[in-house]
Every structure is written in C-alpha cells, then in structure tokens.
Amino acid sequence: MGDSAHPPHPIPHPNPRCRPLSFGPFLLLALLEGTVTAAVLALTAVGLSLVFGVMRVVNVAHGEFFMLGAVVAWFVTALLPGPTALVWLLALVIAPLIVGMVAIAADRLILRRLHHAPEATIVATIGLLYILQQAALTFFGPDARPVAAPFTWRIQLPWFGYSGYKLFVVLAAGLILWGVWFLMTRSKAGLIMRATQVDRDTAQAFGIDVNRVYTGTFALGAGLAAVAAVLVVPVQQAHYLMGGDPLLLSFIVVIIGGLGSLRGTLVAALVIGLGDGVISMVFSPTLAKIIATLLVALVLVFRPQGLFGAKA
Amino acid sequence: MKTKAFNGVSRRAVLGGIGAGLLASTALPGGAFAQGAPIRIGFQLHRTGIGASYGRWYERTAQAAAKLINDGGGIGGRPVELVFEDDGTDPKRGAEVVEKLTSQAGCDVVMGTLFSHVVIGSAPRAGELKVPYLVCSEGYHVASGMLNRWTLQPGITDVRCQIASMAPWVAANLGKKITMIFPDFAFGHDHRDFFTEAMKAQGGEVIAQIAIPPTESSFTRYFPQIPAETEVLYHVMVGPAVLTFVKELGEFYGTGAKPAMFGFIDSLEAVDIATPGLEFLEGSHFWEAHNRLKPADAGEHEAAYRAAVGVDDTGASISDAADVATYSHMFSTWETLFAIKAGMEASGYGGIADRQKFVEAMEAMTDLPYGIERPQGAKRFNGKTHQVFGVQNISQVQGGKLVRVHTTSMADGEYPDAVDYTTMAF
Description:
The complex is a heterodimer of chains A (312) and B (426).
Chain A: H1 23-55, H2 62-79, H3 84-111, H4 118-139, E1 154-156, E2 161-163, H5 164-186, H6 188-198, H7 200-205, H8 210-236, H9 244-257, H10 262-282, H11 285-302
Chain B: E1 5-6, E2 9-10, H1 11-27, E3 39-45, H2 52-71, E4 80-86, H3 91-104, E5 109-111, H4 116-129, E6 133-134, E7 151-152, H5 159-173, E8 177-183, H6 186-201, E9 205-212, E10 232-235, H7 242-253, E11 260-264, E12 285-288, H8 302-309, H9 327-347, H10 355-363, E13 367-368, E14 379-382, E15 387-390, E16 393-398, E17 401-407
Parallel strand pairs in B: 3-4, 3-5, 5-6, 6-7, 8-9, 8-10, 10-11, 11-12
Antiparallel strand pairs in B: 1-2, 12-16, 13-14, 14-15, 16-17
C-alpha cells in the first residue's frame, strides 16, 4: 500500500489579506441570505395561502408539490439537450405545468369527492404527501441530484463572494409575486376567486362554477410551489425529502401573516426570511427556528387570525 | 458417415479435452463450488434516506464480495446469501431491521451500516437478540465501550484512529489554528472531540467548532462564524447536501483570501471533484481511506477489486461515469464479509447455536494482511475493543484530481484501549 514518505507539495500559508468580517459586511451577508430565503418562502407560502383562502383547504401536501417541481426540473434539464440556460428556462415553464396537472388530478379524484370539507381534506392531503413522496422515491430515486444554474456569475465583494444567481432568484420571485397580485386584484379570474373566497354560496348563486374555481386555485397554488422549487433547485439540489422544510416554513409564514391574506403572507415571509438570515448568522440557525416557532405560538394565542387575516 | 470424428474433431481429442478439464477443475479452488444450506448474512442497508448514496455502493460492493466468496467455495463449503433490508438511514427503523433480519429472515449474523446514529440505535437490539452485529460505521462508539459484546467493527478504522493519524500531519504541514465544520450528531462529535484533543497534543489549537445539522440544505449562513485568524479549515460533512456545502463554501471564499483546507472525503463522497464550482478546492487536502483515483503505485489487488465492484480508475461506475463511488467507505463491507468468512471458518461455525463461538473467534483475530480480502490495506484487529486498525491516506487536489501525497503507518493511528469487551458477558 504505497510508501509513507512525504512527496514534495506546496505548503499554503495563511493569507494576511484574510481579515475578520466586520459588522457591516457581516450584516450585509446576513441580509442577502435572508432576502433569498424570504423571496423563495413568499412564493411557496403564497400558494398555500391562496388554497386556504379560496378553498378553505389546509394542503399538507404543499411541500411535496415543491419537491415535485424540483424533481421535474431535474428531469427536464437532464433529458433535454441544449444550452444550460435554455433548458433551465424550459424547466421553469414545464415544471409548474406538470405539477399543476398533478394538482388538478388530485383535486378531481380526491378533494372534490370529499366536498372540500376542511377536516377530511387535511387527512387526505397527508395521504397525498406520502403518495407523492414515495412516487418520487420510486421514479426519481433516493439521491440528491444537482441542477445546473442558468448562469454561474459570481460577485466578489471585498469581504466575501456571493452567488449572482441567488440575487436573480430574488428578482424573479418578486416579478412572479407581482404577477400573482395583478392576477388577484386586476383580472376577472382574480375577481371570481375573491368572490368565491368571500362567500362560496353567493358566488355559486351568481353562476360561478365553484368547482372549477377550486380546481384552478389548487393548480395555481401547486404551480407556485413548483416555480419556487425550480428557482431554488440550482442552489439546493433535487431530493425526494426536500418538501419538509418549505412546508413547515410556509405554515409558519401563513399562520403569522394570516391564512388567506396575500399581503400578510408577503410581510410574514419578509419578517421570517430576514429574521432567519440575521439571527442565523449573528447567533445560530437553531435559535432562528426556535424564535420563528415561538412567534407562531404567540400569534396563535394573541391574534389567532394572523397579523393581516380577517376574523373567522 | 464416419463414426470416428464428430464435427471434424476426433474422439480421442474430445476425451483428452474432458480429462484435462476434469483435472483443471479439481486443481482450481474456483471449481470447489459451495454446497449445502446457505449461510444467511443480513445486511442493514441505507437504501433510502440521507445515506442513500452510500447504500447503493455498499450493496454493490457486498454483492461483489459475496460472489467472490461463493466462487471460491463459500464459507466452510456453504454458500453465502446476503439478505438486504432498507433502514431508511433511521435509527428507529435500524433496530427494527436488525430484529426482522434475525427473527424473520433467520440470518446467521447481521452486517451493519454506516451512519453512526443508526448503528448506536441498532446495536442494543442486536445485543438483546444475541446476534453478531458487524458494523461499517467509522464511529468511535464500538471502541469506546458504549455498545456490547455482540457488536464488532472489523472492516473499517474508527474516527479516533483516523484523526490520530491526520492531526500530526495537519499541524506540521498546514497550520496550527484550526476551525472545524462538522455534522451535529455522533459521528461529527467524534471528529470534534478527538481532533480538538489531538491538535492540542501537537501544540495546535481548534479556535472554532461549527456544528451543522446533518439534514441542513443551506450553508452560507454558517460560514461567517469562521474566525479570520483561521489557518486551516477542517471540514467533514455528510448527507444529500454535501455538494451544496462545498459549492457554497466556494462561493463564500471564491477568488478572495482563504485559509488552507483539510477535508474528510465524506464531504465529497459520491460527488465528482470536477463539478463546476469546486475549482476553489485546487491545492486543498483530503483524508481518504481508500484512494478514489487509482494511485500509480497501487497494491497488486487494486485492479481486481475495482473490476469486481464495477469502478473505473477514476472512482466512477464503469457503466455510468456520473455515478461516483463512495470509494473511501465501501471497501468496509467487502472486508467485513471476508472477516466474517475467516471468523466462521476459524470457529467451525455450523449454525445459529454457534454465534457465541463466532464472536470469540473474531475476538481472537489479530494481524490481517493485505490481500484481495483487504484491498484497502493491511489491518490489525483489537479483540478487546472490537475495533480494527489500519493505514490512512492524504490526497491533494491537483489539476482537479485527488492525488495521494501521504500514507500513514498503522502505528500513527493507535490509541490506548478504553474497554475490554472480552470480559463482558454474552
């Protein structure tokens, strides 16, 4: 098994340029990381919030739609030929479509048959969670698989380096959220969805096909989770168990912001995301999770409808 | 029609050929095919969960070893049959798998798995069932005396031994102010405790210890905790996110000033070192038990081992270059199977009634020379601590390849016994 002599090799010296991160840059990195978390979280949580707001369905399988988005992105980028950026853009279009179709099937086959009853759908979506997770395990496998980022531009700041792609994620998430807001407040589809949210029976009396609205909302919610996943998968890798964290954090955000409130979801995502970034860095990531969970408890005790939610 | 020749071959030639074949088959050990009821070896496997990439290669390696054993006549003339059962890389399920393999599948012995929390969770059940439990987990939990007489680790050295061999080299060649990044569970705690202690003995100092949960998927936020005066960044990471970990480390340091880096290859197991984003690792050093890139002066059995497990000279699968092996860990299943064979044959193992005799025979083992049974290198088994000792390698990333630059001696990794399992009751 080889000799134990030391072959000559370069001996690196600690670089005198390696200075401590003073508080300014330190805070900057914390805020950058926090903003990325907040952007992805907002996109994921908005889907959960929409589904609850319009359908009164607590979708426990929401994290699995997120996972499915990442897995589809891997398949698209691995199977389709072409430049990295182009196939990734294709994935950004194809993944939400496929995940949306899965959601439509789930709504037609399961939720509609339960008449979207709140308690029954919680149990049903728990089942859906396991079905989707095990399906991913069977067809995608147990490994974490990387998806190449559409570009690898990296910013070298004087104190540390940062991925340019992560900043793009923030920008893209912002644009999509603006699109969702536009859809909900400025389009006829949004008007119908809001009408169903306010009063299902009256909406139905006015000739709105509530079942179709529900199916569309469920697909939109799942599609938003999938978009968030395609954005995040180049920095995280696709893995069949990746749906757990986004689900938990989405629930935290939605409970704090108020179930069904878009504005509340956005504000809460920013608070949780930035808070997580800063507390994680200055103190520890575990403390950040403890504080977020404590915040949920406090909101549930003192303002059960959430910061921006209407009283049930 | 002539009767003398058949298809143009004479009867004499045919008879001669048969005779020669018979002679050859009795002369070659490969002809002595295993007979009788099979010896069933249960294998608790990380087929799913965070250890899945290890599990895939553990299964392939164990099957290749079993095939070689069976081709050579099995164990004591009986064929070997492996029974795999997924533990989900989960300690609770791990204990259930030991139970199932022992009670339902009727396995003679159970082979254990890699992740230390699964081994620690499963070993007590093996002790209660009185079934030999042979683990491949690297953790110090076997030699520390934490487990029981039925648990042995004959196929891979433990973290304490690995670190005892690495620390003097790191202190002498890279620097003495160390920051450690490690996974926050038993295996990582072994790294933390023993490396900190070993550096102190070398006149060095661990100035920061950064623990990261093994299920973490984002790492950038941990990096600002690395003190600026760090001379060496010591990293060991496990789980599905190891690639993200090294990529984010690269983004953080990038082209700026950075400390020297010393990693355990665990941070890169099953990951291609030529992946875009890992260029910053150039010039950094890694511990490897078994060199992924076949060294020019590799031992005589290296080629045969690689061919048997289906790995090429760069450490990737022969059939899929993107499927990189967990090369520094998977040999442990191969070597453990051959250790089981040696132990069973030495004890005259006949069935489950002889389990205790088998453990006693294992405890009597000492020198285990280099050979096809031990492709990683010669080893010495300590029957008192149930732990094997061996050599380690240090590689440097040169031109995007892991090149071996140092091999330790067996003595470098020795430490005083903390337990004598042979005095414990069965």
